[in-house]
User: What shape does this take?
Amino acid sequence: MDYTTIRYDVEEDGLLLLTLNRPDKLNAFTVEMCGELIDAYNRASMDDAVRVIVVTGEGRAFCAGMDLSVGGNVFGLDEAMAPTMDDLRTAPDDPAVLKGVRDTGGRVTLAMYNCRKPIVGAVNGVAVGIGSTMLLPMDFRFASEKARFGFVFGRLGITMEACSSFFLPRIVGVEQALEWAYKADIFDAIEAQEKGLVRAVLPADALLDEAKAFARSLVKDRSPVSIALIRQMINRNGAQATPWEAHLTESLAVFYTSMADGREGVRAFNEKRPAQFTGKASQMPPFFPWYDEHQ
Amino acid sequence: MDYTTIRYDVEEDGLLLLTLNRPDKLNAFTVEMCGELIDAYNRASMDDAVRVIVVTGEGRAFCAGMDLSVGGNVFGLDEAMAPTMDDLRTAPDDPAVLKGVRDTGGRVTLAMYNCRKPIVGAVNGVAVGIGSTMLLPMDFRFASEKARFGFVFGRLGITMEACSSFFLPRIVGVEQALEWAYKADIFDAIEAQEKGLVRAVLPADALLDEAKAFARSLVKDRSPVSIALIRQMINRNGAQATPWEAHLTESLAVFYTSMADGREGVRAFNEKRPAQFTGKASQMPPFFPWYDEHQ
Amino acid sequence: MDYTTIRYDVEEDGLLLLTLNRPDKLNAFTVEMCGELIDAYNRASMDDAVRVIVVTGEGRAFCAGMDLSVGGNVFGLDEAMAPTMDDLRTAPDDPAVLKGVRDTGGRVTLAMYNCRKPIVGAVNGVAVGIGSTMLLPMDFRFASEKARFGFVFGRLGITMEACSSFFLPRIVGVEQALEWAYKADIFDAIEAQEKGLVRAVLPADALLDEAKAFARSLVKDRSPVSIALIRQMINRNGAQATPWEAHLTESLAVFYTSMADGREGVRAFNEKRPAQFTGKASQMPPFFPWYDEHQ
Assistant: This one.
């Protein structure tokens, strides 16, 4: 797939730099960008040359939100339909439902949630609407001091999207999520850091280098299989109602990794040398994925 | 319904001031107050003249807890019964179960949880037992410097109620919830703020005005349909095991609002003017509620 | 059961001091220690002489992790098997699954999760791998200034265990859990406190006394039945998708305790005297446990 709204650049040490690339439109989100981002995250998941992903925006914005200047239903929805919850549950991939009903932002964030590689955000400027909500399934978020955020849906008479009603309260708590969503204001990087939305606010010219260095530090000398399992286990098991699902998946994960990269890891530990892992995220243990990848 | 234990006053800008009104009893909670609060929250949910709710107490207390001076089972329970989990699951609205077994505090907080309007607490004084636990399903909590709190059930040999075993760990974390519940001590507004139970501690004479101004700021120039959806989506989807439920409900919510208040919202945005929303919380999109309102 | 890897000492006021006791091996975890810890937590649960548990390590370490110096599969797993999620779900207690597949750390932390008594950690030194993850289901964690922590599985090419993929993100958030798990570094007690893993960092010679005093303060003059119910309700209901399960369990818990220790509690409150509770955690109300104790 050739991309026209994003760039996909694999750099040294397995770092994929994913760049939103419509700078003349402040990288505003479109249905086309939705498709390209889903493709890129799925491709990175299976590409063993990619170990970790950094996401940023070209030019002065990160992403100014959905492009509201397009004609027809600006969200790309098919207004002739009358969908129900039952329609979505039973046939989420029916083409009419997939293209005419399902939230484009959510389709992107579900692909990010399912990704086998850690995702680090480098928010270089304005990140509003889907620009803010596509940050939430990332593992880590860094902001430039020029970054601006806003969950502005309430101001437009619409609602949360991109699975942000799941992700946002889990990151900043129910109360802060409600406040940002009700008020629908734009806020700066300092507030984002104070409330836990981003981990650090950096000078604009240091942002990308620091985000990249951090990203590389996560995966250097680590097993890609172990990293992929840890990402899915923490994201998924931490939201379960009891520890039982964690116990089942951890049992199988330790079982299968202990006979693969774990064997080398223990040997290297006992021999006091760095481990040489050979596992690949494209070839996961037989119980993976243990979940419905829709979900 | 005429209220004898509370007051229901709709003020300008759609602000409902709900006042616990047994000042000579420090607004202690009774079975009668339970019924009146449920009625008031359900009524406010469907009353389009109400946009946001502020809750406070008359006199020097917010609510001193269950009135333990009444005769018989002080919690209003029917001691002749021998209920099981199965009884509650299969027939929660059987009159004998509803009146003789189900926790009165929980019936109130479930009505608050299901409410279509944001709820802001103005805790003017002592808030102990159900006085503390009825604060938890509120969206936002302000406290006077005279406020006192206490999850004192353990001291009485009973347990958490009013769904506080769900709400409290979600607000302050499992560890703090366990500490307050085990110790069962009274604590002051500063501790409540430091631990995240209240968002601000205010001078007693500024409390109500500040809580009201904050409440009005949440809903001014906003779509009541959008606000109601955001409230239910953040509260409910943030507690799901995966983002999938969020994706389904968000897809339908954006779909239907984009053809109603969202159309005006986008048009107003493009025309750089304030939006004039006409949606009503009493008339929600066809997929609403997507959940069992018991739950 | 006689213990060879731990000590089980019941002290005054119902305090059980549980000590990891392989000081010459830095209390490294073995399959034998797994069995003894499960036995000890289950025994403490049913032993009415035990009101609260403090856990510490003998000598200079708390627990240096799984003992990686043993022969064969160092995790004690049966490499001849090829287990699936279905195997674990349908027959978790099949001896071959229980001994050859299921994570030993998780079997311990599930016993801790199900325990009827509060658990307080006194982390006296190095706590790495299972040494860190066995802290997570504790109610409260104190650390000596000499304590060190590390979720080091990634470094070994394996994954989270001991249900830490459930517990850790619930305690410190998804982002911090991912960071510690990906990086797999050792960190000190100050970082553990700043990130919310431990509640206090104490001088080494004050640690155990302070942890014991805190533990005793939780249960003094409290009903053991009420304490056991509060522990299970906050841990379990706080992770449910809605408040409904909390309402059901709280209704039954208040119902049955109000006719037992709650009656004495209310009477003592009205008579302004300390309550004399007679309930026992070994004899819980009829609806207990309302959950599958596997989970």
The mean pLDDT of chain A is 96. The CA atoms of residues 159 and 166 of chain A lie 13 Å apart.
